[in-house]
Amino acid sequence: MPHPKKRMSKSRRDKRRTHYKATASTLGTCPNCKEMKLTHRACPSCGYYSGRSVLVPKS
Amino acid sequence: MRHGVKGRKLGRTASHRLATLKSLATSVFKYKRIKTTVAKAKEARHLVDKLITKAKRNDVHSRRLVAQYINDKDVVKELFDEVVAKIGERQGGYTRVIKTGQRLGDAAEMAILELVDYNDVVNEKATENKEKREAKAQAKKEAEEANVVEESAQESAKAEK
Q: Residue B15, exposed/middle/buried by CB under 10 A (0-12, 13-18, 19+)?
């Protein structure tokens, strides 16, 4: 079976990892309270979704 | 390959899955609105919609068929007597799934599964809760004000000394 011939240096390993990036999630504004919220989800700050109150926020 | 195979396994055996879906359907008819994971909500709505469609025939046979999937006899009765009457002419689409974000602990995507014709019931409860909260906040505020008054009284008493 094939095997790596040499141990990969920290430098090479880390260079490979420079392309591992977190992506920012797309946010929209809540039409009710104008807070930023995830799209297609009830607003966590005011509990509204599609013009009506669907849940009571925690605070 | 599982190309075109419908339905989610939900990480359960067939019997466990059936039990889960029955339990979810029973809860929906009982409470009109339940909070669960998105995957379970989306699976349960198929069963809930089909049960309502069956219940609309409103005869003994349909009642027996529906009762196979509901764990509570009282809930079957309520479904046939009240839910079907309320749903009336609606042609399918009796349920609504609203995503509500991630659960603490395992970050599972959560959702609300509800019967669409029960908005007013849910809203009534929400306003009730809101009133309770506001009353609580008001009481707290008053208590704080009372404290402030007491403190200022004590301070003025000290100043007099």
A: exposed
Q: Rounded to whole angstroms, how far apart are CA atoms A28 and A48?
A: 13
Burial of residue A55 (CB within 10 Å: 0-12, 13-18, 19+) is: buried
Query: Is A56's CB within 8 Å of B130's CB?
Result: yes
Q: Which of A34-48, B49-63, B84-98, B131-145 has the lowest mean pLDDT?
A: B131-145
Using the Cβ of B129 and the Cβ atoms of chain A, whether some distance falls under 8 Å is answered with yes
In a 10 Å sphere around its CB, with 0-12 CB exposed, 13-18 middle and 19+ buried, how is residue B102 labelled? middle
Which residues does residue A28 pair with via DSSP β-bridges, in sequence order?
A37
Q: How many CB atoms lie within 10 A of CB B36?
A: 20
- pLDDT at position A53, please? 72
Cβ distance of B100 and A56 shorter than 8 Å: no
Whether B97 has its CB under 8 Å from any CB of chain A: the answer is no
Q: Does B101 touch chain A (CB under 8 A)?
A: yes
CA distance A41 to chain B (A): 5
Calpha distance A59→B146 (Å, rounded): 24
User: Are B98 and A49 in contact (CB < 8 Å)?
Assistant: yes
Mean per-residue pLDDT of chain B: 87
